[in-house]
Amino acid sequence: MTETSLPERITAFLDGGPHAVVGASRNRDKYGNKVLRVYLQHERPVFPVNPTADVIEGLPAFADLASLPETPHGVSVITPPEVTASVVDEAIRLGIGHIWMQPGAENQQAVELARQHGINVIAGDACILVAMGYTERDDR
Predict the structure, then answer these.
(1) For a disulfide at 61, which of 27, 28, 48, 49, Cβ 3.0-4.6 Å?
(2) This model's pTM is above 0.90
(3) Mean pLDDT of the chain
(4) How far apart are the first and last CA of the chain?
């Protein structure tokens, strides 16, 4: 399989929907909340995934990817690296084709496993907040 360029991988990730944010947070200062909000700022369908929250930014939160009402096109991962591995395992089981590991969430074994399963992976080289143009505002 030929490795595609970062811009091509980003385009492929963003070209579909919906997306899920694993590690979504109720705390607006955390990246798990900011990543969720960048999808909302761009009016993109998104599911927050957090096993300890019921609602985040006015959206129902889900315990895991398998609990979502539909399989997402892509998953933004904002979790500790050891949790990222289990997120990738679940994404593989569900047939999710795109995973974006935010800086700090990367797990090299999980990256390699995802790529072995044909998943478009963005890890270690880009932040979705920059790619999508996140702005800090209190509009929700």
Answers:
(1) 48
(2) yes
(3) 95
(4) 42
